[in-house]
Amino acid sequence: MDVSHLLDQLNDAQREAVTADEGHVLVLAGAGSGKTRVLVHRIAWLIQVHHVSPMGLLAVTFTNKAAGEMRHRVGKLLNLRPDGLWIGTFHGICHRMLRMHAAEVGLPETFQILDSDDQYRLIRRVIRDMELDEGEFPARQMQGFINHHKEEGRRPGDIECFDHAFQARQLAIYQHYQDYCERSGLIDFAELLLRTLELLRDSDARRAHYQDRFGHILIDEFQDTNTLQYALVRLLAGSKNQLFVVGDDDQSIYGWRGAKVENVVHFDRDFSPKVVRLEQNYRSTATILEAANRVIDHNAERMGKNLWTEGEKGEALKLFTAFNAEEEAEFVIARIQDWMEQGGRASETAILYRSNAQSRLFEQVLLREEIPYRVYGGLRFFERAEVKDAMAYLRLVHNPHDDPAFERVINLPARGIGERTVALIRDHARRQGQSLFEAARSLCESGGFTARAGNAVAGFLALIGELTDEYGQAGLGEAMQAAIDRAELADWYRSREPADRAEAREENLAELVRAAESFTQPFEDEQAGLSPTASFLAQAALEAGEHQGERWQDCVQLMTLHSAKGLEFPLVFMAGMEEGLFPHQKSAEEPGRLAEERRLCYVGMTRAMQQLVLSHAESRMIHGQTNFSRPSRFLSEIPAELVEELRPGRPRVAPAQSHGGAPQDAEGLSLGTTVRHPRFGLGTVVTIEGQGANARIQINFESAGSKWLVLGYASLERV
Ligand code: ATP
Ligand code: MG
């Protein structure tokens, strides 16, 4: 069989990795050097040349989107659909295994995944039930505490307690929360991993089964695996299976969530793999690559790489200083319009930022300019209130003991079930060790409610019962639609919200029905015996908004730097390059965090293929306050000769109302005037644009160099 197509488009080092014989392989290489490509070709190579059945392969990626992409690329290389091949995220794969062995790990078949928002609410509930002070035990912190321990594989009993009353209470909260989850058939993200680990560790039969099945395990973005994931990999590998692992220590950006870049070193120690280094970058222009390399050079303790490219030099990076965040957004969108006018596509452009809240301003301008866009991450589609409301009905139909779903919709839409009634149900449930649904039913039967509340609760239980009977077996789309209609959700939003808000919610509900209708269950899920509803609900909880806006193929991509990992775009904007925002202010608090922020900067820069545009704003509203900030230190780490500073055009946006210094009159200053700035010191005015407080002036400072400032903010003093 001719397999040259699997090797032609690879360089020597890549080919060496793809065709490696028996044994483990570690591909350690910088951004854009073809690690993911190598992994895809390796899968195809194993199937076509070594005749490994797709069923014998397990490939792990970081997002569902990457998994879909990988499946598609393997299919293209092989010219057939690789059915039976398990490709997914660690969470997705663990979910599937747990569904197949629910009983063995003590889970009801209908167990539900608790997303982080539901988890937070549940923890808050537990803290209240325990009558602890929420000031002393903030739910958010307890959520971090619990997840952290789970990610390290620790149950409450495994945590050493030094007899501190405080610590003992934290452990009690963890334990209560866990009991609650067990009772209600709920499983949080970390639990997905931990349960699977326990399943494989404690059951010889299961471990043997999966070890026999997955002769080859391939993992992308290995630098961001956490302790549990690494432990899982070791269990699955056993003593005879082959691991093919690719990663880049410079792109480890999830340390804050428990990822351990040391896993790369551990892997080398534990498995003695053949190590392949890729050094040629195929993604970016030489200029972009050089800039990114120079930034990451500022980190100590790197494994060290030498990344080069044969690509063209390309354009200089662009740097834009906006006087506020609104102007930054206007600037970025105007550049995207230029790109499109010159024949570029919207989907070739990406706006990357450090924090989700930054997307709003860009969205506003994109909407106004009628440019289609898609926001990844952010408030994910499945996290929107109305979508969660409707999904809660579907969850209850699937599993009536899903307490968070029950709490969410027992009085939504309002059916006259007050907080007192709910408290009664909760209390009964706690005492009887029942789910809320069961407690509500037994209270109804025993006449435990007032007549009015009793009727209302009975009505709700009947509604869930009807949906279960009539639509339990129906198609997903139909069941979803029925839940929305019977619960009269649309009427409910319309009755309490302005028309445009309600309409937006209805559109999202319609979108949800479409999503349910068009949901195709992964073949592997079906094979594993999962119901389509279970697959759908799991996907909703696990995916990172990746299917949002799928109808727009050609749209601008907006996402955080974190979610840009592994992707590439011809034109990349990195916005909000300001101290405090990026590097994030938190990085000042913990050692190691700054280095992680710098790796994030490296990840962002290396997404760009042809053009990289950096921007920062001198002022930005944060929590209703105008903040002034200095440019990010990362900007100063890029050699000046690689950067072209763009001159701002005329100011198009008025600065925010509240501001620092008293307005000054531009007329008072003229070209050549010497001024003193509180931070930048002495300088000379070289340009003035606009008038009054909004005027923008460019000043050549003796020590700080050339700056554009807004007169109203600048607190300049004539000397
Ligand atoms: P990251 O670290 O960002 O995940 P990566 O190392 O996984 O990057 P890939 O995404 O696999 O890199 O590849 C980067 C780009 O280079 C892709 O567009 C890929 O198709 C291209 N590429 C990789 N190897 C080659 C090659 N030998 N010839 C031509 N193009 C290549
Ligand atoms: Mg990659």
Report on the architecture of this protein.
With 719 residues, this protein is α/β, with parallel strands linked by helices. It contains 27 helices and 22 strands. Among the domains are: 4-96 and 194-280, P-loop containing nucleotide triphosphate hydrolases (Rossmann fold); 112-184, Arc Repressor Mutant, subunit A (Orthogonal Bundle); 381-542, PCRA, domain 4. The protein has a 7-stranded parallel beta sheet with strand order 11-12-10-13-14-9-17. A 6-stranded parallel beta sheet has the order 3-2-6-7-1-8, with helices on both faces. Strand 15 and strand 16 (625-628) form a beta hairpin. Helices cover 44% and strands 15% of the residues. Helix 5 packs across helix 7 and helix 13 (325-341) packs across helix 14. The model is unreliable at 545-552 and 650-665 (pLDDT under 50). It starts with 11 loop residues before the first helix and ends with a strand. Bound molecules: adenosine-5'-triphosphate and magnesium ion (MG). Residues 35-36, 220, 566 line the site of magnesium ion. InterPro entries: DExx_box_DNA_helicase_dom_sf, DNA_helicase_UvrD-like_C, DNA_helicase_UvrD/REP, P-loop_NTPase, UvrD-like_ATP-bd. One of its GO terms (biological process) is recombinational repair. Its EC number is 5.6.2.4.
